[in-house]
Amino acid sequence: MEDGRIPVWLDCDPGHDDAFAIILAAYHPAIRLLGISTVFGNASLEKTTRNAASVLTAIAAARSVPLYVGASQALYRPPFHAATDIHGETGLDGTSLLPEPRAEPVASVPAVDAAHDALMACPPGTAWVVATGAFTNAAALFLKYPHLVRHVRGLSLMGGALGGGFTPAVLGKVDGVPRVGNWTQWAEFNVLADPEAAAAIFGNRELARKTTLIPLDVSHMVLATEEARALLLLGKPPGGGEADGQKRPTKLRTMLVELLMFFAKTYSDVFGIAEGPPLHDPLAVAAVLAGLKDDAAHPDLQRYAVPFADQPLRSAIPTPPPENGSAAAVEAAASAGTAKPKTIGERFEVTVETVGTYEEARAGLTRTGQTVARLLPPGEEGVRIPRGLDIPRFWQVLEECVARADAAVAAAGGEDKIWGAEDDVGVAVAAAAEAGGFDGLPN
């Protein structure tokens, strides 16, 4: 990392929450976005690829961030039904402000090969892969290029659901029945879309110990409430304080809040979560920032960290007893680093149920795609699954990235350059408010 930033390859399936993952990855000052690959999931591959190109266009990054087309279906399974009841037919329903893409995806190189080349060009132990859709591309990447496991710093995944009180998050109900998953009673959408891909990742012990998993149990703690939507729409004035209710929102901010309001309605209708939709995918991007607070080599980036909470555990490394009980012996042991065992967070062995078809899982006949996490003894390496994060800090960081995207739009020629000269922001905001918006919208 010659400039201290974290190299990140983002694999996604836009998707309302994926749009925010793209913004966070593209405009966080501590992240260097290497490229984006698309995968099937929230819509067909054709639509998720177009959506990614449109989002990159909206944030003035279509020509600076390369886009590649990934898998259209699971590694070994037939095509999967897209989540149209949550994300709509296009995958990004709910706004008329999504611009026409200004750049085409790179067609000459397969997504997995492009990711490999970009990651291998980074110094060893620096780059992350972040996957916010089905794990198909991520699994294919490490299956085709196993040497990459040792080269990367980490893999951050949004997916899975644990239940059992892992966090205080409400996972929702369907037809009055509490759920663990969000696509079946037991399975989260991304894992169910390709359970064999998830099993391949978690079954690789070397890769698992470098993997961070953000399950629904964590993402459902971060709801895009009315207050959060107001922050994203109007921003925060210099020096803090309340957002300016008379400030005219940019087209980008209006588009993003319209997307969130559509997302909020579908989550309320389908899962009964009325406070706001969970913002799943940007958390997988934010998870790569957790280590910044301890990055002594780049103190200027420490303030950009988003802290995540691991339950601390003592390692199993024993403390050798002093040869004699003297203070000198204890001091010598301490100076040698042996006086106290190392403290690390919880680590888990994660398994995924792969038996059963999509249809059997939807019918409740199997638990296909269920994610099970077994807490490992202290000192054993495994998958990191945080139990929470600094939520106000997350929203602050996300809003700052939207502000940087606004500045990039202005620097690229302004809104007219991206959206055209017509002024439809006022109409869009009024329509958003009428559809069940929130206090603080400008007149």
UniProtKB/TrEMBL annotation:
Key words of the record: Glycosidase, Hydrolase
Q: Report the InterPro entries cross-referenced here.
A: Inosine/uridine_hydrolase_dom (IPR001910), IUNH (IPR023186), Ribo_hydro-like (IPR036452)
Supply the CDD domains for this chain: nuc_hydro_IU_UC_XIUA (cd02651)
Give residue ranges for domain Inosine/uridine-preferring nucleoside hydrolase. Answer: 8-396
Coiled coil (UniProt feature)? none
* Keyword Heme included in the entry's annotation: no
Q: Which domain of life is it from?
A: Eukaryota
Entry similarity comment: Belongs to the IUNH family.
Output this protein's name: Inosine/uridine-preferring nucleoside hydrolase domain-containing protein
From which organism does this entry originate? Remersonia thermophila
